[in-house]
Specification:
- The protein is α+β, with helices and mostly antiparallel strands and 350 residues long.
- The protein has 3 helices and 22 strands.
- The longest helix has 36 residues, at 87-122.
- The radius of gyration is 39 Å and the shape is rod-shaped.
């Protein structure tokens, strides 16, 4: 009985000692803070759109035989979009080729007759009128062949244009035609947006234009699926909103899948002149009571510090807290379960 009591005392003492020592050191990965001259920015909501849109129409009339695309399909430049039936046109082309062959026979005959009369005329064996008639028939048959070949070439152009191809690589925005429809020249059949001309149109206050420069890179987030990408400010709309006085920026973004015109995107637009900010990876950020913090390592323990984010830089943020200095380590892995003053062991640095 006394032996059991001794074991219980030892166990109780061990537990009490463990609690007194606190949690074991946590293994973490850190990275050093850097500093750069960067402008502050703020998020503004804009809309996606294709800056280059082609409204595809037919150049020849006819019955739609085949449609190769649907709205939303992505196509390459030169890909066939639809084909117009050419059965009647094929017959006309065959007839045109036969007509050219017939004229070739007449040319051959007229040329022989003309050369024969030319020799006789030189010897005064035929009249000048007969010679002129032979020359006229020969030259007229040549002109007739040229006209027939021009007509055949026109038919061949119509056949080529009966297959409508994509003018550039892009996405099909709308389809206004179906198999069996009769189309006329000029009628819009499809619209296609250039995949290399995807933009965000974002309104900003006119007072911010002093900080905006064409060619600046800005962070863009596609709100539908929180996809982050880099955009470039390419242009500024020449007309401001008459009520709000907002100016519309045109921000080009890379081509991407599963986006649609008029989807929303968040653009982080510069709102100040450049100043020195501390650059911290987003992986270092943790949320506590709705505010942003990071953990550093001081004297072998986790030191929690609030972060005042003034600019977003893709996978990084810029902060203006004065206590952040170049080279200060911040925890980027293992920070989710850390507690203030918890002992830590640095397992690596990135």
């Amino acid at each position: 009985m006394k032996f059991i009591q001794v074991l219980l005392i030892i166990a109780t003492f061990g537990v009490a000692t463990a609690f007194a020592q606190g949690p074991p050191p946590a293994k973490v990965v850190v990275t050093p803070i850097s500093q750069k001259e960067i402008a502050e920015n703020q998020p503004f909501i804009g809309l996606l759109y294709y800056d280059r849109v082609s409204h595809v129409s037919a150049e020849v009339s006819g019955l739609v035989k085949t449609i190769h695309v649907r709205a939303g399909d992505r196509v390459k430049e030169g890909s066939p979009l639809l084909a117009i039936d050419t059965e009647i046109l094929a017959k006309e082309i065959a007839l045109g080729k036969t007509r050219v062959a017939q004229i070739d026979l007449r040319i051959s005959h007229a040329e022989k007759n003309y050369k024969r009369l030319e020799e006789l005329y030189a010897k005064e064996g035929v009249s000048e009128r007969d010679y002129d008639d032979a020359l006229y028939l020969y030259q007229d048959s040549l002109k007739e062949k040229q006209a027939a070949e021009d007509g055949l070439a026109t038919l061949l152009i119509k056949k080529r244009k009966s297959v409508i191809s994509a003018p550039f690589a892009g996405v099909i925005l709308s389809k206004e035609v179906d198999n069996g429809d009769w189309v006329q020249p000029g009628k819009e059949l499809l619209s296609i947006g250039s995949s290399t001309d995807l933009f965000v149109r974002v309104p900003v206050a006119e007072t911010l234009m002093q900080y905006v420069h064409l060619g600046d890179q800005v962070q863009v987030t596609i709100n539908a699926f929180q996809k982050q990408t880099q955009g470039i400010i390419k242009d500024v709309a020449p007309v401001a909103d008459p009520k709000t006085k907002n100016i519309f920026l045109k921000v080009r973004i890379p081509s991407m899948l599963k986006v649609a015109a008029n989807m929303s995107a968040t653009v982080f637009v510069p709102t100040s002149s450049k100043r020195k900010l501390s650059i911290i990876p987003r992986d270092a950020l943790i949320k506590f009571q709705g505010k942003d913090f990071v953990y550093s390592v001081k004297d072998g323990k986790a030191a929690i510090m609030p972060v005042n984010i003034v600019t977003f830089l893709g996978s990084e943020i810029g902060a203006d807290n004065p206590y952040f200095v170049t080279g200060m380590p911040v925890v980027i892995e293992g920070n989710e379960r850390l507690r203030p003053d918890q002992p830590v062991t640095i397992a690596g640095e990135k």
